[in-house]
Amino acid sequence: MRRVPFLLVAMSIVGAAHLYVWSRLVLAPAWPSPWFELASAFLFLAWASIPFTLMLGRRLAPPWSALVAWPGYAWLGSSFLLLVSVGAVDLVHAVTALASWGFGSASPIAGSELEQARRWATAGALLGGTLVLSALWLGRRVVVRRVPVPLGKLPSGMNGTTIVQLSDVHVGPTIGRRFLERVVEKVNALEPDVVAITGDLVDGSVPTLAPHVAPLGRLRARHGVYFVTGNHEYYSGAEEWCAHLGELGVRVLRNERVSIGTEGESYDLAGVDDFAGRHFGRGHGLDIGRALAGRDESREVVLLAHQPRAVVEAERAGVGLTISGHTHGGQIWPFNYLVRLQQPVTSGLVRFGRSLIYVSNGTGYWGPPMRLGSPAEITQLVLEARPPRPAPGVP
After folding, report:
1. How far, in Å, CA of 255 to CA of 240, rounded?
2. Can you give the pTM of this predicted structure?
3. Is 321 helix (H, G, I), strand (E, B) or coil?
4. What is the mean pLDDT of each run of 10 residues along the chain (395 residues)?
5. Nearest-angstrom CA–CA distance, 325 and 340
6. 3-class secondary-structure state, position 16
7. φ, ψ for residue 263 (rounded to 5)?
8. Which fold has domain 143-384?
9. What interhelical angle do 3-22 and 35-59 show, nearest 10?
10. Any idea where the domains of the chain sit in the sequence?
11. CA pair distance 392, 395, nearest whole angstrom
């Protein structure tokens, strides 16, 4: 029952966005019949179908889930980009109109008011269509990003050791086994020392998605494959997934740490539960203190934490590097600006006090099968045995 108020609010917001797009692209230009009626009906039905396609898609397994959910998710992203495009065109229109009024000149776009409205509507539709097609094309592309990371406490003998990060794959309604197989092939080709999966691996239960996650069993890393929970694991049965990943040879770190390297030269790799875990009881929930309890502070420590906001406590605890995901880098520009309201870092390697944090854009996507301005990535973190440059104002 708690979902009903959320659904009503969400659909009201999405409905208002649809109404704005309809008013600018359909109503204002007053397209002749039957185009006016067809466009109006399409926008209404597309809005009304969103909750049904998304809920039904989650109940099915790939590839059937994709047939149901993909159109709904794709339209959700498309409507957002249309909203941005129409808003941008309206802003340009307002600025040019104000400039024309201020200088006492005629509108730069000649013609009647109706003709001008149709030209502005066409411009908004063309811009939106271009962004939608670009985002759909970029949505399934995954790049390998190589990132050097200086760590002052890393033993010299471990200089050049690598951690390959996967994050936010979101195997579920529209991402299945074939996508993950390609990801595993790319990871193994990098010959990593460690593979770290920083949460939000799945969107669905073990019985539904086990065959599609099976390729993870073929991951190869010199010092092992490690996983920490994300918020979406807690929506999908976190305990069941932790047990299943163990069967695939993936070590789940739940507020604990392991030593990476040889007896003579090594560093600590710690992993914590996601913040969302505290709402599910049974000992779940982020606990950096427990993960680092009793450690030798002269040793370098790398922390796996799904959400970047964990870096605040990690920095105070003396963590050298925090590796996170969750943000998707915003996934679809300009949504990244909204993400910054909740997380201290959105994407990339950033100095945070006396610590470093790397935030992945994610390897898959959530919801709309789209990306714009934040390419999906497999991250190869190359650890360097040298101190990082101090941040401004930090001695």
Report:
1. 17
2. 0.90
3. strand
4. 72 92 92 93 91 77 80 92 94 80 56 82 93 94 97 95 98 93 98 98 94 97 97 93 97 97 93 90 88 94 97 96 97 90 93 95 95 97 87 47
5. 13
6. helix
7. -65, -35
8. Purple Acid Phosphatase; chain A, domain 2 (3.60.21)
9. 150
10. 3-138, 143-384
11. 8
